[in-house]
Design goal:
With about 290 residues, the protein is of the alpha/beta class. It is about 40% helix and about 15% strand. The strands form two sheets. It has an eight-stranded parallel β-barrel, surrounded by six helices. The chain has a two-stranded antiparallel ribbon with strand order 4-5.
């Protein structure tokens, strides 16, 4: 009996608290199956609950855009500093070493390029996510974009259905509809719709009033870096987003188009995980660049 009392005390049983192993560090994921939690734990650091993703999936609509001409030279050396990578299956198979030991958020839809009307996306075979041992599948949702809203919503729902079947989380990637403003009202709607339709993660944009967007979304939000910014402004974006409720960033052009990509991703990591201010992060970037 004494041994059992000691066990209960050590685990906070009977003292009005929840046992430590009953908690989970990812927002909205406490009731997910074990496999889903395992994959989310690979993406989100259990100590901080945050993530720095390195996105280089741009080529699936933009081709060899600046900074992505050579994945082997420009991107692979940066992967060591990221918590998770986001890319397409073609690049993963052809250009990313299989021994990187990093979780993969696999771009799981494909469609038209920048040369034509955007957003006519279709899903890739979910079994590819299994074959590539993906920790999540990324699927776009374009709210307010006419016919494309219905197409992308259907893709998101189908991906979530398949993800639930195989234990793979889905990240809903919010696009900006042609008639929609980049404001908190729009991003709150798009993010919430992604979560309501089964996304376990949402990728969206930072905006004024973002704290309302994050509070209204029951799953974690990561911030898209968007267009290339000066390094200090990009670090300010990271800092403000995390302080307003985001759990991390999914940076692409603001890393691989930086004047020193390796220094930049390390500074972003320090701002997100270690709480450095933008000024401290920029100082770190400058020091590493030397």
């Amino acid at each position: 009996m004494a041994d059992m009392d000691g066990f209960r005390e050590a685990n906070n049983f009977g003292f009005g608290q929840t046992a430590q192993f009953d908690s989970f560090h990812v927002k909205g994921a406490s009731n997910l199956p074990w496999g889903m939690k395992d994959r989310l734990s690979r993406i989100f650091n259990p100590k901080t609950g945050r993530v720095v993703m390195l996105a280089f999936d741009h080529g699936f609509i933009m081709g060899p855009t600046s900074g992505l001409e050579r994945i082997d030279l420009n991107i692979v050396p940066l992967i060591q500093y990221a918590d998770c990578i986001m890319c397409t299956r073609g690049i993963l198979q052809s250009s990313v070493p299989a021994n990187i030991n990093k979780p993969v958020c696999l771009r799981s839809d494909a469609g038209t390029t920048i040369l034509t009307e955007l957003n006519r996306n279709v899903l890739i075979d979910v079994e590819d996510a299994i074959r590539f041992n993906a920790s999540a599948m990324a699927v776009m949702f374009s709210a307010g974009d006419g016919e494309q809203e219905a197409i992308t919503a259907a893709n998101l729902v189908e991906a979530a259905d398949l993800g639930n079947r195989y234990g793979i989380p889905v990240m809903g990637v919010t696009a900006v509809g042609k008639q929609m403003a980049r404001d908190a009202r729009y991003f709150a709607l798009a993010s919430r719709v992604c979560a309501e339709n089964g996304a376990s993660i949402v990728k969206t944009y930072y905006c004024e009033g973002f704290e309302k967007v994050a509070a209204a979304c029951p799953v974690p939000i990561v911030i898209a870096g968007g267009k290339k910014l000066p390094e200090k402004e990009a670090l300010e974006l990271c800092y403000n987003a995390v302080n307003d409720g985001a759990v991390g960033v999914d940076m692409g052009r603001n890393v691989f188009q930086s004047e020193n990509p390796a220094a930049m991703i390390q500074a972003v990591h320090a701002v997100v995980h270690d709480g450095l201010t933008p000024e401290q992060g920029y100082e770190m970037f400058q020091d590493l660049s030397k």
